[in-house]
Each structure stands twice: as structure tokens, then as C-alpha cells.
């Protein structure tokens, strides 16, 4: 299969055809980040973000009155976002069909911003191959009180275990507390097989090191452990997408990092919406060249 090139977009800012109203509204009051600032951030990073975020169903975290006020998670829409936010009909478990949202350009991102969106979360498959995931995500969720060094070590161990079975993986700071270990896939296996793989891989790790890892949702079992949230890998589930701003204090963003860089990073919210220029430069750097790309299929487990 042909491996797309992530960094082919030119550096010129895209022309935007969507008007952002109330640009002065404070979305991150504690950081002085307005709706206009946030829209500008997404326009700036759109070239490096869209290869990961474009052309896949997204769920939006909308906080029309700003972070900390009422926010809601939105999966479907009948068209109120305008022409730049596209819809793809998807069959639900109960047999009905719902229109999911996707964007494919900076106008689409801005149209979502105009509607009060802060975060974009994506399916693990693209609209072209909805039933065949093109990425698997292990979302490492540390129990409260665990330091980032523990998360980092867990991510590195996942990477090594994945490499042992022939899978290349990449690290992303969530912008919150944890790290996501991303495994690109050539779209081939369907959702049930990918989910089953993620489940069995995660359970094997927690069985081997129960004092470090837990692979079940149960909060009670998480004490001082890292929850390997493999449930991101079922049809309809989402994970936060690279370069997304998080609706958390300080306006942090989800940021791809190389495995070498991760060793020197001490928190998952290392970069924020004020760092657009640095994030773009990083995205085009040697350290991140090829981040998120590998032409590979799941091995037998
Ligand atoms: P952190 O590192 O702080 O855990 P995170 O983005 O990984 O940040 P999680 O709470 O672990 O946050 O959530 C993992 C993913 O589950 C999210 O990225 C999101 O896509 C999905 N998710 C979270 N909350 C909801 C929700 N209310 N409805 C649907 N999906 C959700
Ligand atoms: Mn998480
Ligand atoms: Mn989680």
C-alpha cells in the first residue's frame, strides 16, 4: 500500500472562508486565550494536524461558554455546522444510520471552532475504510498520584513489547495526564479483530505485571497502577487527535513526540496553544519525520 507523506503541506497559512464571531470571548480564562486565539491556533497547525485528523469521523468537545463551563461531547449533527463540516452516514449497532462529522481542511476546523468546539476526537479509521482501522491506540491512564516517570516507563515498555511482535509504535502526549501509544495500521483487519488484538495484548501485559498494569475499567483495581485503556480500539470509540487543544487548565495540546524526546519530557501537558510555531517546527523536524507512519498489519497473537 502507498504510505502517505505527513509533512507535504506547504507552510503558507491557508485562506479561511468561515467567520469566527465573538473572537474576544475568553475560552481559557486563566490563560487569557480567546475564541479568536483558539481559531488562529487551529489554522496555524492545520497543515500538520489534518493528516491525522482529517477525513475520519470526529466527536467534538464543545464548550460554547468556555472551558470550565458546561461542555458536551457531540458525535452527530444534521447540518448546523455549515458546508465545511462534512457528514458520513454510519450504521449503528441497532441497525439505524446516523450522520457522523468529519473535516478535511482548515475551514472545517474553524467551522467547528465557531460552534464552540475546543477538542477534536477521532475514530481509528478513515471515512474511506470505516470498517478497517488505520490506527490502534493504547491510552495509558495513570492512577491519581502516579508521576509522569511511571507513565513514560509504561509507554516505553509498550513500545518494546509491540516491537517484539513486529509493530512500530509512536508516542503522543495527551495534553492531560497520560501518553497515547499509537500503532499505525494498513487498513485491512476489521474492528472486531483489532479490538480483540488490543484486548489480548493489554491483558497479557497486566497478567505479566499486575502490580504495574491493569487492563480493566474497574477503578478499584487501578490503585497505583496504569490503566491500559485498549477500549479506544472498538468501532465508534475515539481518541484525542494530535495537536488538539484540551479543555483543561493552561490550554495544553496533544503533542506527538519521538521516543528519544520522551525520555526528557516530564509532563503530558508540555505544549500549549501558545506554542503553535514551535509545534509546527517540531512537526517538520528530523525527530518527528515519519511520526505515525508504518505500513504494517497485526501479527497473530
Ligand atoms: P488523559 O491523558 O488525561 O487521560 P485523554 O485524552 O487520554 O487524556 P481519557 O479520559 O483517558 O482522556 O479519555 C480517552 C479518550 O476517551 C478521549 O480522548 C476521548 O476520545 C474518549 N472520551 C473521553 N470522554 C468521553 C465521553 N464523555 N464520551 C465519549 N468519549 C469520551
Ligand atoms: Mn487517557
Ligand atoms: Mn482513557
TrEMBL record:
Q: Which residues form the signal peptide?
A: none
Q: What is this protein called?
A: DNA ligase (ATP)
Give me the gene this protein comes from.
ligD
Span covered, complete protein: 520 to 820 of 820
